[in-house]
Amino acid sequence: MLRRASENKLFMRRLVECVDAGGVHYPYSEQERIAADILGADNVLNPALTLFGWPDAGLPKNPPIHYSRETLIQCAELNRKKEPSPEERFKPAKYYRWRLVYIHGISLSEQLERYRSNHFRQWMDSDKELRRKNKNAEWMTQSHQSGYYLINYINLECGGQDYRARQDALLANLGANFGRIPIGMLSEAAISFFYAWGEKYAELAYSSHWGDEVSANGNFVSMEIKLEGRIDERKLAIAIEDNPVGKSWAGDAFVGRHGMCLYRKHEKEPLK
User: Fold this and answer.
1) Does some domain include residue 271?
2) How far is it, in rounded angstroms, from Cα 131 to Cα 224?
3) Domain region containing 29
4) Is 133 inside any structural domain?
5) How high is the pLDDT of residue 3?
């Protein structure tokens, strides 16, 4: 991580600014301190930490957290309900991993321009065709509103085509405050996690997040995120797909398993 940082002059300047301000992680605002106390510091990714992945992004000062204390407590309780075993890390999960993440709102197209060669899968003709057909699609070019978001970085209700209805039923039961994470937001968060925390495991390794975005082929777009290579030299690998759901190949039982990552929509009042 330090080697990568030293090669980026802009990031090093920001890092010095953070140190001068009182610490490498940048001093928490009062809201961020409350959130870290409730969720745990390892589940709060503040703007300064995202600069490891997005060194030329802006560094907002004290961005508001538009979730109540009660909402954060609920998420923390869900996180504690079940700790996954090492084996369960590689299976579609029934537990939760709510994280409070600062999102800059970088469009998927811009992410591809920056990281096409080292993070986004590009060796299959189908990948190139998908990007070519959808290069002007809103879900590729849209920038999301910047700010803190509660993201459940775990896939729920994983399975084939018939699981879409189960996922929709779960969303309806949860209410209007929840939604499927937009594809671009999910990939930005994953890249931020990878560079800031050097994660050695990806929660979406053996199942894809099934978004609301629709491709030019008429399929719901999905995204798989995994880490490849030796455990001490992992590489983040992101795949965007719109293949028919539920089919497997090469004997891989996990291929075709599509789940749903949730996010909580902003509440009107900021954290107090």
Assistant:
1) no
2) 15
3) 2-83+94-264
4) yes
5) 66
The answer to whether residue 138 is domain-embedded is yes
What is the DSSP code (8-state) at residue 218? S
Exposed, middle or buried, 95 (CB in 10 Å: 0-12/13-18/19+)? middle
The answer, yes or no, to whether residue 265 has pLDDT greater than 60, is yes
269 within a domain of the structure (yes/no):
no
Q: Which two tokens stand for residue 89?
A: 């890390």
Query: pTM of the full predicted structure?
Result: 0.83
Residue whose tokens read 């490891």: 52
Mean of the pLDDT values across residues 61-66? 92
pLDDT digits (tens, 9 = 90+) for 169-194: 989 999 999 999 999 999 999 999 88
Q: Can you tell me the distance from the alpha carbon of 267 to that of 229, in angstroms, rounded to the nearest whole number?
A: 40
What count of other Cβ atoms lies within 10 Å of the Cβ of residue 135?
Answer: 12
Number of domains forming the structure of the chain: 1
Number of helices (H), then strands (E), in the chain: 10, 10
Per residue in 144-165, pLDDT (tens digit) is 999 999 999 888 888 777 888 8
